[in-house]
Specification:
Rossmann fold; 2 domains; 5-stranded parallel β-sheet; 4-stranded antiparallel β-sheet
């Protein structure tokens, strides 16, 4: 069952959306505290987020821009704004779709279905020592435990997975990050490796990445 996170500060509309989704075969969750919305989004282990543009403390477009730096989880923007500029701005910041209020429930469900089909078709799932790795969502999980990886951490982990058991040099890893439009210096690479190790350790894989001094790293 696909899980969907609703981020909507209008309590009535939020309840209506949850009922609609629950009755349509989805598992809907609702954010109710908007003081840490970005953290709520990043910690969400599901398939889709419905994000209102007008929110307390911040606006949805700014939130989406920050979210996209760390996660590829699909996002559909919900808004009462109707100008083409707002739609273009949301899509340029990484929205997967955009629908205006008041929305037609049938159209909303069709949009949700289309986004899920498109993104899940593109989703790559890999495995490593019992872990399930969802590359598009940027998550690694083991049983009921999961960790969200940043874009850089997932690029590094993916490259190590591709060459499991082989030495991957620091230069190769930095090149992989640069190829994905990420500028990373030597110190930043060390920080990302350290954070990746910490997240794998939290899932019980303390010895996953071995450092070979003056050579690089090996995923065991």
């Amino acid at each position: 069952m696909n899980k969907i996170l609703i981020i909507e500060d209008d309590k009535t509309l939020r309840g209506e959306l949850k009922t609609l989704l629950d009755n349509s075969g989805y598992e809907a969750e609702c954010a109710e505290d908007f003081s840490g919305t970005l953290e709520t989004m990043l910690n969400f282990d599901g398939e889709l987020i419905l994000l209102d543009i007008n929110l307390p403390f911040t606006n949805g477009e700014t939130l989406l821009q920050e979210f996209r730096r760390k996660s590829d989880t699909p996002v559909i923007m919900l808004t009462s704004r109707v100008t083409e500029l707002d739609e273009v701005l949301s899509m340029s910041m990484g929205a997967d779709d955009y629908i205006t209020k008041p929305y037609n429930p049938t159209i909303l469900l069709l949009r949700i279905s289309a986004v899920l089909k498109r993104t899940q078709k593109a989703e790559q799932k890999r495995s490593y020592r019992g872990l399930t790795i969802a590359t598009a969502k940027g998550s690694v999980s083991l049983g009921d435990r999961s960790q969200i990886l940043t874009k850089n951490e997932m690029i590094i982990f993916g490259r190590l997975l591709d060459r499991q058991g082989e030495i991957v040099t620091r230069d190769e890893l930095m090149t992989a990050l640069w190829d994905n439009d990420e500028f990373v210096n030597d110190n930043a690479l060390s920080v990302n490796i350290s954070r990746l190790r910490t997240k794998l350790s939290a899932l019980g894989l303390d010895d996953a990445i071995e450092t070979r001094k003056k050579q690089g790293y090996v995923l065991k």
